[in-house]
Design a protein that fits this description.
By secondary structure, this protein is mainly α. 42% of the residues lie in helices and 6% in strands. The protein has one domain: Rossmann fold (3-Layer(aba) Sandwich), CATH 3.40.50. It is built from 16 helices and 4 strands. A 4-stranded parallel beta sheet has the order 2-1-3-4, with helices on both faces. The longest helix has 15 residues. The radius of gyration is 19 Å and the shape is globular.
Length: 330
Amino acid sequence: MIVTISSLNIITSTSTMANLFSKAEMDELFKKHPQLQFNPDCCEKIKNFQIRDSDIFVIGNARSGNFQSFKHLIVNFSVSIGTTRIQEMVWLIVKNFDYEGAKVFIDERFPVLEMFAYELPQRYINPEKFDCHSNSLEFIDAMKDPRFIKMHLPINLFPEQLLSSENKAKIIFIARNVKDVCVSSYYQMKYLGSIYDGSFEDFCKLYMCGYAIGSSYWENLLYFWNRRHEDGILFIKYEEMIADLPAVIKKVAKFLNKPIPPEKEEKLTKWLHFDSMKSNSALNHENLYNKTGFIRVGKIGEHKKEMSSEMIEKFDTWIYQSIKDSDYEI
């Protein structure tokens, strides 16, 4: 049995967008910044990926491009600091706090499932780190149990076994305020990925209309929110980690059936501090890209400094229309 999205009563954004932006305006913006084309071969490989019962998945919101293309590397980890922090937390808890082992590059310990599907631009990527990226499916397939796997895919491209009611793999989903995600996406697409070359205001409009992650932002979030009480799924908000990281560590440890002694928890909390992560070469990806900025700011409410009051109002309208039939709260 596959759990379908249609049963979730997710609100589509078409009518909402018509109220926020004119069709002529958006047609012009999409003409200037076209989405890329769908690559069915890569998607088929992902959907057929074989899941193991001992797998542990960390899933963030879908990346840029709405996954209509795998022709260019999309370096927009829209909740990068959130998923990276959870990845490191999960790996260390399960590996009994092997800080020496944690010096290995995070993408080798906790690879991104879909990374193989991207063309890796030589001007940004250190070729020595290619294997866990360009051959990510084979790399993961060869890993010993338990495998630690990260994804930034929309639901419709998930491995089918992961959506099965018989799936026993553990899934941790990370949500973040969509306005802050938009800001993070803009900076990573414009300055780290060199994928988008327009203004921030135009990016916000495109973002809400599907340019960066499309309706999959709400599809993914509400899908996991509605399944959050299931044994194999843990739903965490990024803002929870900022407000009370030790509490989130306890929650994750309980979910993984790995109780943590107080002294271990204190060291892990310090290890996962933003400044510590930003300077950690195994986590910050700066040994991979010839540009800095993978871990950028990580603060709550960054959108208030970047967005106009008018744009915030439009986002609020979009958010309300998207979740009004759900019990999810921002």
